[in-house]
Write a structure and sequence with these properties.
binds NADP nicotinamide-adenine-dinucleotide phosphate; Rossmann fold
Amino acid sequence: MNVLITGANRGLGLTLTRRFARDGFGLILTCRSGNPPDDVDGVVPFMRVIGGDLTMAATLINIHETLDEFGVDLVVNNAGVYSDESLQDMPSEKIIVISSVNFMIPIMITQIAWPYLEKSKNGAIININSVAGLNSSYNEPVYSATKFGLRGFSEAMDKVGRPAGIRVLSIYPGAMKTDMVRHREDWDNLISPEAVADAVFDLYNRKYDSLAVTSITLERF
Ligand SMILES: NC(=O)c1ccc[n+]([C@@H]2O[C@H](COP(=O)([O-])OP(=O)(O)OC[C@H]3O[C@@H](n4cnc5c(N)ncnc54)[C@H](OP(=O)(O)O)[C@@H]3O)[C@@H](O)[C@H]2O)c1
């Protein structure tokens, strides 16, 4: 089994990489710097690191060529950008970046990966969403909009994928202990990325039978 994980160099992406490495998945990782992530445990059949900014066409071409070479069973659209700036304070360039990374890139990677997932016996895409994609709050309107959009896309593509045996699933974490929200005063009490990575792993391994579990939401008590 091969997994493509975007934003694999740190945060949840790195934790996911370690989780899937432990179970012997072949790893196709996007890391903007091009450097492989530190201490990936376990015996992996192979690891291919794709460098470059995900919003650049060259990076997407590289992803396409790598999937053509190795095939893929699971795609985890994880890379993301957060901002709690108000709409009036946010430069338009930043609106474009957040919308691209959180919303448009998962759509484009889905388009690229789809034919390879059709060839897999257990093809799936897991989109890392957020509770901000379920309930919007006043302080993150753009981030929330990108995650609402991603949710709509996931739900539609899950319906498209069923006849071909491809599941399109979502994880909705609350605030998680990563750099993304390191500024928060309650950082030590946030959800661990390990708990979210375990949920991703469980969701992938829970195949559809008469019951379709399409998402998991993780919130703090
Ligand atoms: N942390 C939270 O509280 C929280 C809660 C709910 C959902 N999420 C979601 O969880 C996912 C993972 O976030 P995280 O908390 O692990 O964040 P993080 O620690 O800030 O990591 C973000 C990752 O995305 C990559 N990335 C961002 N923009 C990129 C670009 N243009 N090209 C290539 N890579 C890019 C980063 O690469 P670089 O290292 O090169 O910047 C990094 O690997 C995101 O989708 C996020 O929205 C996070």
